[in-house]
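Internal tracking record. Fields below are filled automatically when a chain is submitted to the structure queue. Please do not edit lines marked as system-generated. If the sequence contains nonstandard residues, flag them in the REMARKS field before resubmitting.
Queue: standard
Priority: normal
Entity type: single polypeptide chain
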Amino acid sequence: MSLFEQLLKQAGVFPGGQVGAEPAAPGQPGAERAALGGIVEMLSHQGLGPLLQGLKDKGLGDVVASWVGTGENQSITPQQIEHGLGPEAIEKLAARLGLPPGEASALLSKYLPQIIDKLTPHGTIEGVPTAPGA
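SYSTEM-GENERATED OUTPUT FOLLOWS
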């Protein structure tokens, strides 16, 4: 398990078991765990800092700040996720999960705010790997 995955587990994003389960059909047991594993893999490869900066650069700075901050998380739509991350990132995640890109975007819009929030409990990204391979 990578340092990034360990941090997510400690943050309570993965309460037990393995982070990246095999892909499963939506609505089936293991599907959400597989989606979370795919998101963790994406964050591990891209790095938290670059991912957040990319979203900020696409006009989503207020939304991202709410996830990192200690207040309530703003929601993000699947369309905003696709715009912020780009279709290539969405397609890669979708292929890994065996889902259509729209469903991958929907899963990201559901889980990414929660993951970022859990990784930044004190309103900063200090102590969290912020670059690929960290």
